[in-house]
Amino acid sequence: LPEQEAFDIEYWLLEEAKLQRMPKPKSLAGRIAFITGGAGGIGSATAVRYLQEGAVVVLADIDQGSLDARVEELGKRFGKDNVRGVIANVTSEAQTIEAFRKTLVEYGGLDILVSNAGISSAAPFEDTTLEVWDRNISILATGYFLVSREAYRILKKQKLGGAIVFIASKNGLAASAGASAYGAAKAAEIHLARCLALEGAPFGIRVNTINPDAVLRGSKIWQGEWRSQRAQSNRIGEDDLEEFYRKRSLLQRSVFPEDIAEAAYFLASDLSAKSTGNIINVDAGNAVSFTR
Ligand code: NAD
């Protein structure tokens, strides 16, 4: 090589090495995220992922004990000023509005909503009481409506775009025995997300849905009746459920809250700048076939 060219290459390699050593900019730096059900398994895993990428997070939940523990734990890991907790029942319009007001007072804006607060309920169709039906519709369908409407209003007013992520469920698309009320409410969430994507697009507000299949570990909703009903309907012991779901999956892998959080990161960040109105199935492949 001519001397000058060799010098140029060496110089370029040194510059490249310098760049590699520089800390990478965090992709959600300066963003403000509001996560409902933030004290639960998927909500808190998502909060961790966002905090890792430099966002500040507000966790909204009804479970005071879990919320306090989560906020303290995340505050220790990522800095107290970067995490807030707010008690809010997503079925209450007043509490939802107040939770967003507090977010604006505390952090001065909003960029990301993860609508995730949820419950489980499992019963054969004929045993589904009106109370169970109403509870599912109110927490899941109405709750997602109230929370996303509030976030949408703020995002639209700010004129800076934004990302809304719905954590729905495979059950919102595929029928599952014992999950009629839950599945119908999840179907409402999925459709609501698409309507919101349509109306939000001119304002740069993107709305996408994640459909998990069974996420057993770290999730409170897998305790109690849901767990025993699933074990009974599959004729296995409760302790064998995780292995059962793993073996049933196309990829032969279990899904964890961190897997949902990774998709929620993708959908909240600029990596998905060209995606709206979509559904990502995080289900180890189960959505490809009716038999899974
Ligand atoms: P989780 O029970 O660990 O978390 C849910 C959180 O929502 C809890 O902290 C709970 O206190 C909170 N919550 C419940 N009702 C509320 C209300 N009215 N207002 C505010 N907060 C409320 O469960 P998870 O697995 O993290 O579930 C999160 C979401 O993922 C839910 O919407 C659920 O339907 C969905 N999902 C879960 C699974 C799974 O297998 N775990 C599968 C598919 C979809």
List the helices and strands and how they pair.
Layout: H1 3-21, E1 32-36, H2 41-52, E2 56-61, H3 64-78, E3 83-87, H4 93-107, E4 112-115, H5 130-158, E5 162-167, H6 180-200, E6 205-212, H7 225-233, H8 241-248, H9 257-268, E7 279-282
Helix pairs in contact: 2-9, 4-5, 5-6
The structure holds nicotinamide-adenine-dinucleotide.
Ligands bound to this protein structure: nicotinamide-adenine-dinucleotide
Strand order of the largest sheet: 3-2-1-4-5-6-7
Number of strands: 7
Elements, N to C (H/E): HEHEHEHEHEHEHHHE
Give the strand content. Answer: 5-15%
In which range does the helix fraction lie? 40-55%
The number of distinct helices, counting runs of at least 4 residues, comes to 9
Largest sheet: 7 strands, parallel
Described by the principal axes of the CA atoms, the overall outline is: globular
Oligomeric composition of the shown chains: single chain
Which structural class fits the helix and strand makeup?
Answer: alpha/beta
Q: Which residues form runs of ≥5 with pLDDT under 50?
A: none
First and last CA, distance: 61 Å
Q: How confident overall, as mean pLDDT? A: 93
Query: How large is the radius of gyration?
Result: 21 Å
